[in-house]
Amino acid sequence: MAHDAHEQHAGYGGHDKHAGHDKHAGHDPEMFRRRFWLCLALTLPIVVTSHMVMDWFGYSLEFPGRALAGPVLGSAVFWWGGWPFLVGAVGEVRDRAPGMMLLIAMAISVAYVASLATSVGAFDLDFWWELAALVTIMLLGHWQEMQAIGQARGSLAALAALLPDDAERVRPDGGTERVPVAGLRVGDVLLVRPGGRVPADGRIVDGAAELDESMITGESRPVARSVGDRVVAGTVATDSAVRVEVEAIGEETTLAGIQRMVAEAQRSSGRAQVLADRFAAWLFYVATATAVVTVAVWSALGDADEAVVRTVTVLVIACPHALGLAIPLVVALSTAVAARSGILVKNRLALERMRTVDAVLFDKTGTLTRGEHAVTGVAAVAVTGEDELLRLAAGVEADSEHPLARAIVAAAEQRGGPAPATGFRALPGRGVRATIEGTEYALGGPALLRELGVNLPAELDRAAADWAGRGAAVLHLVRLPGTVLGALALADEVRPEAREAIAELRARGVRTIAMITGDARAVADAVAADLGFRPGVDEVFAEVLPADKDGRVIELQRRGLTVAMVGDGVNDAPALARADVGIAIGAGTDVAIESAGVVLASSDPRGVAAVARLSRASYRKMVQNLAWAAGYNVVALPLAAGALAWAGVALSPAVAAILMSASTIVVALNAQLLRRVRLAPD
Length: 682
Hints:
Layout: H1 4-9, H2 29-48, H3 51-57, H4 66-81, H5 83-94, H6 100-119, H7 128-152, H8 154-161, E1 166-170, E2 176-180, E3 189-192, E4 201-206, E5 209-212, H9 214-217, E6 223-225, E7 230-231, E8 236-237, E9 242-248, H10 254-267, H11 271-300, H12 304-317, H13 321-340, E10 343-345, H14 348-354, E11 359-363, H15 364-368, E12 369-380, H16 385-397, H17 403-413, E13 422-427, E14 431-436, E15 439-444, H18 446-452, H19 458-469, E16 473-479, E17 483-494, H20 496-507, E18 512-516, H21 521-531, E19 539-541, H22 549-558, E20 563-567, H23 573-578, E21 581-585, H24 590-595, E22 598-600, H25 606-641, H26 653-672
Parallel strand pairs: 11-18, 11-20, 18-19, 20-21, 21-22
Antiparallel strand pairs: 1-2, 3-9, 4-7, 4-9, 5-6, 5-8, 10-22, 12-17, 13-14, 14-15, 15-16, 16-17
Helix pairs in contact: 2-4, 2-7, 4-6, 4-7, 5-6, 6-7, 6-12, 7-13, 7-26, 8-10, 10-13, 11-12, 11-13, 11-25, 12-25, 12-26, 13-25, 13-26, 14-25, 16-17, 20-25, 25-26
Membrane topology: Multi-pass membrane protein
InterPro entries: ATPase_P-typ_cyto_dom_N, ATPase_P-typ_P_site, ATPase_P-typ_TM_dom_sf, ATPase_P-typ_transduc_dom_A_sf, ATPase_P-type_domA, HAD-like_sf, HAD_sf, P-typ_ATPase_IB
Domain P-type ATPase A: 162-262
């Protein structure tokens, strides 16, 4: 295959033995497909030469050897087509875990023995066609099931396919060479051309480009990346070429980590799956007991032929095919749907619990806020307008590398750009100064004003005090020697999408929204007010040390609340692990992967509400599928046993197999509706 080499080095090789039905997960859909078509070809002549079928349709076929069609072809169908079920049954007996494969094996074995007995004259039954039809329909059902689960898991294989087959490596002489992705090493510099995919995780060392990171974050809008920024394997440079120094390959890449997390989630066992397994075991005992009772009753009535037919039908109808598919397919689909939207479900139990969460505790910095300063307030008193103040302030700060300086320049670029300046000079501990259009300006905080001996105008003093009370840094622009032109407030900006996330969580029944931060109480309260926290209902934990965050989770849990903790996965690890559901914002840290049950690949907190939507939708599908599988057997078993035979209502083994396969199709189609759940934010 085209992607074999990089699939192996990226962590995509190997077959998941625990997926789907554990007892036959080693069989791929192709194996069941081949056996189905061969058995169908053998079944057709068995059916058309059956005396019963000929009587039904009023035709007659007589040719030498016709009587051998059933025994010979039927034996081939039983041993070849039924072999996977027989092997699976042995495994279930060995593991002392009776389930679907044992029930199927019992049904076809009883049918085969009865057919052989008929051929030697022990019974007056025309049974070979029903045995062949039963095995063939079972193969069809398993083929469709394995194919459905395989398609649901296709998104994981698609992650591997996102990697290119080869890369363009930059040689020491500046030229480039094509090399296989599997041959890359940490430290290699790669050229990624416009429209090309990044072959490995790394950092840009030359150039800038808009990168499509939707396969990681679920966000469709390209993101600007330049020198020093980290890029992830599989993302696409949309408009320009960049050179990337490789920092991670193979199992260490973000893409491989995503694949591992989703695969772990799909094979992890949740409470609903345990319930399904327990039901399958009970169904084995119920079916076996029903079969024994059926044999006894019909034999006591003096109808040995009907005893055999009814017993086989009971065992066929009891096959928990739909039950076995109910949970694995929902899990596979839900985690695949989530992964496509940038929601990485590491632990299925976390996804199941999310539907019961009634308190969500958000870390403030980097989760509800952007984690970096932005200009949040501008007050001009001696220049013409806020835009002019920003233009001058950004000009003074243009050559500074300080984070506050970059925030001011970024704000000015949205309003016309910084003023050209010369003579930049840093004033350690006080601010900066520069010359613009022949006039010297200084920008700094209270220490600069004290040094210059300048007092603030009353209106500016009130604004500065209000900003400082909210936790913002306040800088003043002074035209030297001593005229204050205005002030700027810079603070960690609240994410606009955070308000939407909180509003949706409330609309979905979350009783308490809480925020936790190490910031001062005034700062925390100001952010909470900006986010629309409800006094007396929502909570704010301020001035909390990282080591004490899990204590706040415990406090909420002691009140009887089911708590989801949302943090950046770095200093929030203990709280993420302590919460009923840990949700890490951002998929790039080892701590997030280890401590959280769910990871949001993007930094959009609206993903928390999306996890809640997915949890409810997937649990609803699980319950619906289990109810269908259970209800189907409650109705079908008595009919299979012949409880209504006196009224002329009876099921043959072949009809039972058709109904069983139909129930599997219902479960599969119901699970597919999960694809309609919308997770990605608008």
